[in-house]
Amino acid sequence: EFTTNRRCFEEDFKTQVQAKEWLELEEDAQKAYVMGLLDRLEVVSRERRLKVARAVLYLAQGTFGECDSEVDVLHWSRYNCFLLYQMGTFSAFLELLHMEIDNSQACSSALRKPAISIADSTELRVLLSVMYLLVENIRLERETDSCRWRTARETFRTELSFSMHNEEPFALLLFSMVTKFCSGLAPHFPIKKVLLLLWKVVMFTLGGFEHLQVLKIQKRAELGLPPLTEDSIQVVKSMRAASPPSYTLDLGESQLAPPPSKLRGRRGSRRQLLTKQDSLDIYNERDLFKTEEPATEEEEESAGDGERTLDGELDLLEQDPLVPPPPSQASLSAERVAFPKGLPWAPKVRQKDIEHFLEMSRNKFIGFTLGQDTDTLVGLPRPIHESVKTLKQVTRVGSQSSGIGTNQGKFDYQSPSYWLFYQVHSVFPLQIALLKILLAAAPTSKAKTDSINILADVLPEEMPITVLQSMKLGIDVNRHKEIIVKSISALLLLLLKHFRLNHIYQFEYVSQHLVFANCIPLILKFFNQNILSYITAKNSISVLDYPCCTIQDLPELTTESLEAGDNNQFCWRNLFSCINLLRLLNKLTKWKHSRTMMLVVFKSAPILKRALKVKQAMLQLYVLKLLKIQTKYLGRQWRKSNMKTMSAIYQKVRHRMNDDWAYGNDIDARPWDFQAEECTLRANIEAFNSRRYDKPQDSEFSPVDNCLQSVLGQRLDLPEDFHYSYELWLEREVFSQPICWEELLQNH
Known about the structure:
- 60% of the residues lie in helices and 0% in strands.
- With 748 residues, it is mainly alpha-helical.
């Protein structure tokens, strides 16, 4: 397709410009040619439109036919994208995208086909590719950008964030494509490109993780709260990975009892064990993956049967001896000096924890409580005074703590996240659609007749007939699924974090829908595989990657070269996806006892422990967080048999005072009415949605007018811009909703 795009451009360019190449033209001449291209897009012939769209795509790809290096291709791609946007290319392609989405002929043709191939989405893929390159190139900021480019970037961000004229926000259009694809009405949509573009648009309009940190600091300053003392991303960067739990170091002392002949040397062996532990920390600083080997299927199956079997599997995975010979004392001290001392995180306390501590103390010493009063300490001993003082020193007040659930709560109505949430609020099937696609793309999913076909934009018209073609297609399919998982995991996490910052009930609304759509068991199912093999997978062909494939002559591919793969030790894409899914799971379960119990019921502990084999600090941190919140429910025997994991939790995860996670004596560990907890949260969310988004009603018991003529004759107050977009509203809310008239008549 790169070659086809180049040919379409060169054929059109020669008819408009004589004896010159694109890079030789002045800027005014380039603008004039782009204007001509956009004019030629407005033709009736579908084939001619596609050729002109391919010519525009070649410009967005960097006119690689006139470049000598990959750096030049990327430079001219960025330059051309800014030029194309300034000439109105994005708006023109947005109109074409609307036409393709509403193309009922293409939808019905795809529904009739027994097998959909990549040829059924050619026009959509070209349009989405141009829009993706425009968004990605303009989104990225550089110090060398001119003032004109910076202005264009802000204009583009505003254009994507809000409703313009009679069009809905661009992100909502892409959301509707996702739901339409999952409903089976448009199986030919190239869902990978749609999800990638959707993720980048949300990142561009709302901001990425670094921008989120800036927004968090600004919001705390506006509310008069103290500044943040640490940046989570920077703290994690300085952490080092822990060694995976091993069989010999994770069992209790009763299971490690030495034989009678060695009982006399027990004290010496204990000292030797401590020395080995120090050696293990130094050993951990070596290559991340040289000592790890992928487990076989039999080992993976047996690993899920119990913790002891899992620990045995981890021990067998080590190629070299787990503990190297003890080094000299001098080398040990030299190694220790290089590492920072102390715990990585400052401890935290919630206001609720202080109230609970004072309630227990007052009941014990004076026989009554004072509710939420944390300042009155009359009648309490001096040590209690000191304890409260210490707890208040490490109390962190969140930006959502004041005014929550009231009209006085801080709420940014003009932020892009508000408008996005307001639109997504009416598109509830979106969360289910994203999880359906994620399930179909998970490596552990098995093909089912009722599952979504996510391979429509990767399968060729003619299936492979040689071994080489089959291997290449297999790599393409796996890469295709990996990109889909990456896009969905990053999109969900980014939306949750922005909703959490904008208003807590926005976050809780989306979170609860994800939980009700079985997001928690889905993520656990994703991790119920050989995660180390998934992260070290080599499902890419480097010589076919952009922009390498546009400059260099492609070597002949052989089965041996495909089996060898690239030289990377691990796949950043899959590591990124795993971390995102773990963070998403943490977001859903944090401070929610009912959801924590779901982790226990679904036996997540051995699945999560298996993920600790990946020696990457950030991934291990979020695995240990998930293990920490459920240790109190797993029982004393589990904690006794997993002391290495408990030690890693102590070293890596933030401490919260009064959190009795290591012993299980906390009041929250007792039997709990979990259903009531979710119902209360849902009632609060519905009250928030009604207060913020629904029109105020005069009375809950106002009479209902059942007269058809009277109802139709009423005059309703509609927004000023409603007459611009009422056709879109009708299409989405009325015409697209299936109505079973027979069932309606039977019920009435």
